[in-house]
Amino acid sequence: MKDEVTREERVDALGGMGCKRKRVEDARFTQGKGNYVDDLKLDGMLFGDFVRSPYAHARVKSVDSSAAMEVPGVLAVLTAADLEPLGLHWMPTLAGDKMMVLADGKVLYQGQEVAFVVATDRYAAADGIESVEVEYEELPVLVDPFEALQSDVVLREDLLGADGGTPDGAHGPRNHPNHIFTWEAGDKDATEQVIGAADVVAEEMVYYHRTHPCPLETCGCVASMDKVNGKLTLWGTFQAPHAIRTVVSLISGIEEHNIRVISPDIGGGFGNKVGAYPGYVCSVVASIVTGKPVKWIEDRMDNLMTTAFARDYWMQGKIAATKEGKITGLWCHTTADHGGFDACADPTKFPAGFMNICTGSYDIPTAYLAVDGVYTNKAPGGVAYRCSFRVTEAAYFIERMIEVLAIELGMDAAELRRINFIKAEQFPYQSALGWEYDSGDYHTAWGKAMAAVGYDDLRAEQAQRVADFKAGKTRKLLGIGLCHFTEIVGAGPVKNCDILGLGMFDSCEIRIHPTGSAIARLGTISQGQGHATTFAQILATEIGLPADSITIEEGDTDTAPYGLGTYGSRSTPVAGAATAMAGRKIRAKAQMIAAYLLEVHDGDVEFDVDRFVVKGAPERFKTMKEIAFASYNQAIPGLEPGLEAVSYYDPPNMTYPFGAYVCVMEIDVDTGEHEIRQFYALDDCGTRINPMIIEGQVHGGLTEALAIAMGQEIAYDEMGNVKTATLMDFFLPTAVETPHYTTDHTVTPSPHHPIGAKGVGESPNVGGVPAFSNAVHDAFRAFGLRQSHMPHDHWRIWKIANELGLHG
Amino acid sequence: MIPAAFEYHRPADLAGAIALLTEHGDDARVMAGGHSLIPMMKLRMAEVPHLIDLQDVTSLGGISVQGGQVRIGAMATQAELIDHAGLSNAAPILREAALQIADPQVRYMGTIGGNVANGDPGNDMPGLMQCLDASFELEGPGGARAVKARDFYEAAYMTEREDDEVLTAVSFAATSGGYAYEKQKRKIGDYATAAAAVLLTKEGGACASASVAMTNLSDVPVWSEAAGAALVGTAVDAAAIKASVAAMLGDIDPTEDNRGPVAFKRHVAGVILGRAIARAWSRA
Ligand SMILES: Cc1cc2nc3c(=O)[nH]c(=O)nc-3n(C[C@H](O)[C@H](O)[C@H](O)COP(=O)(O)OP(=O)(O)OC[C@H]3O[C@@H](n4cnc5c(N)ncnc54)[C@H](O)[C@@H]3O)c2cc1C
User: Fold this and answer.
1) Which of B152, B173, B194 represents a domain boundary (last residue)?
2) Cα distance between residue A353 and residue A183, in whole Å
């Protein structure tokens, strides 16, 4: 007979928290068996696609679809005039603005949707688009937000008051027709006083350029209106399926129980798939009109040009310090280019997201932030591309300002960080801009990072390199890019976080089956994060059933509990907490069942890995599997049959993951090319659920950070034409451009999260961008560089060298 | 990204292809690997009512190296150029250049014929063919003829080839001496920011002959006769390289695009050529 299994073996058998469980999703993804929205084929399904504006700013004088209607296979051409009777020619945005579904008299950016062609297939739709004749009258184009705030050209005539004035917007007073809002945090007067009296002040404009999340799968949907039972089913690439259901109900008038929203497999989101787009509305309308399912799928250019860009923040900063380098104050004014409509996806009360995390990892006693949102002739969006709301912008800003201050002080940038970090004993820490950081130990992380990379040796090598360069022995410079970032993720507490009035809680519902396996459904939706793997691990540890016996299901609003979806690293902090809490409810009931079966009082049994044991008599136990069966076959006095639980979790605070990154970069001064010699990433995301998935997330996030810092951008010419609308010009790194990464960690659990986890999916992007960018800057520090804007592609690096006179 | 409707033809031989070209005139285009043509059709920048797929025209394939002469059939793919041992010996610069074109997937499809016939200043083979002083064989309803690569390119997408002619092969003399193909690009799969092809020979410590060509620095590939001449008779020292670069800069005419402004491109062209000359000389 087999020996008694040890406790350790029982723990291993669960595949619970902390183990490197293989991703259960990968079996289908690696075999091409994923099920994405464009895989969906329904009987009689039609295809819709857009006529888009070639101009960035123009009046639409007329739309003539008569020739298009002659194209074989074309069934309908919808224009704003067709949507107007339904009240659907405009729709609300997540930011309290409204946006056109189809051009209503004018267009505000290149690629804007003008008409929706519905045809039997996508080929006929494409031919139909070519045949729609639109008469435009070009208007002056504003692509520069600073110019927009001075210009007489009014972009949003629809927002003008009856008297021609500028009425308040969703976020208060507006001071110009092209101005959207002013948002402030901190103490302006105190900060200006500190800066006025400081020993040293470093001032710089830091631009974080416009880019795009560019998920491999573009946005799309299939809308199917069943006219017999009155039900609308909407499949789509939605990062927040429940919110989409509510929005569709509110704008269409269809009762919410008659709408079913399904997010199938999603091929990456990165914030691009949070918002509501004209394609969704037009597909729904087209399905209602035709009584047939209607599919809409963006192509790559549509995706890059129109749905949800990211960043585009001009951040003017001042940072004050004592001669010794102790920071005394931080001031920031941001000019935020939001494009033609304000369609940022932020919690309602935060029109600039959590930009007020921009004091970073530092104990800065006094700070002030103001953000002005501006309309321009660019696509709307401003989403959190692999970061919590505007947190990447904030981290980039402070990590650049620290470097500039180090230059001003003539100090080493690592040391400057070290002497300003918030100390471990200061947590929970109240920041000058209004946040309560939950936990952290920055000095330990920083020390570990500096030791791991051999920081002092690197600086010595760099000094030698500078000497060699000056002596004409080399044309390559060495940059050491530092970053210590603090994120704010896991939105968020319902008291201050909502989207369209929906509190940002999240949810989990668990059903245990009689034979001891389970299904758990969540309000979130994985887009590559591996929820089916990690949430099962959380549950395995909480309820003592093997992760392999637990199905995780997300994305179907008819079955999943209500939740706000997946973005802003909120799944683990919020839905992960709900999962643990629901698991604890299961365990509480299981305890009563176990006590009944073991004929002892509830308080006399305790949970042990996969069972309840009688205290002091471990040989007397009931496994969770036995308890599950008992819940279905025993009449237990005072207990309902079955074993189910649901939890809606309203987090008491955000979580604050942090990390210490170092990038060592070689730069060819003559060609502007770079080579990353070393990249060290230490992440502290609190309790680690699955180290392998964390590593994968870090690799992916760093690679997106590399892209953004070193070449990726959405660039416009002065006519508002998008210059980077294909993957030839929009940089998406492949294995060839991706360096080797060394990952490391410390563990500082979140004190308020049930399992202490903080979220990690976005940290590497938030921390990576400053690390790469600082490496470029650092390489040229010895030659006098202070600030040069991203992306650091070849010609821009070459330009730095050229302007510093390094080309002889 | 969906092309306009087109007729698809798949002739079995060259005569069939030429007959279709003659019949449909301007409305017809031949397709080799399709990796330049199909993207243009999808962007609706090229409308091709009659697409003539050359895949079944087997006479257009093949690579031969004989008596110091290299002849490559138009339908030979870039991957085939890379894998052909005889070709690597006869003209190693071709392999070095082909390996810097696009990525493996594209190289399995893209052909040398398509690359040189396309007339896109971004293509790498046209510049290389200038450097090699290659000839292009053309065949149309009026028969066959050969055109020198150095006479072939008129402007972007405009070449000596008549609409009803098929480019059947490229040929050139096997090379000797030093060679280098140097290319700067933003990422894998990108066209050149600047690229330089250099062939040179060495006799008694001095450069005996040199040929220099540049890619994506003008609306046509640039063979810089003066840049080569600046090297001949010298020991290819720093001064000679500088003179050659200066001569080359007189022959190129880059335009600004997403890869960078003109000043940057001119600077990089010089750096790239300098490196190519140095590497070619080290191999001579
Ligand atoms: C992502 C990507 C990156 C690339 N990067 C590079 C690069 O870095 N460098 C580079 O050089 N190329 C690059 N290319 C282009 C690639 O090498 C092409 O395949 C090649 O230029 C054209 O060859 P093809 O066989 O695909 O021609 P096709 O696309 O089939 O044809 C191109 C043109 O030539 C004509 N044509 C083709 N064959 C003949 C013939 N035998 N006679 C007459 N006319 C003919 C066609 O009618 C068409 O007008 C890239 C392509 C892609 C998609």
Assistant:
1) B173
2) 10
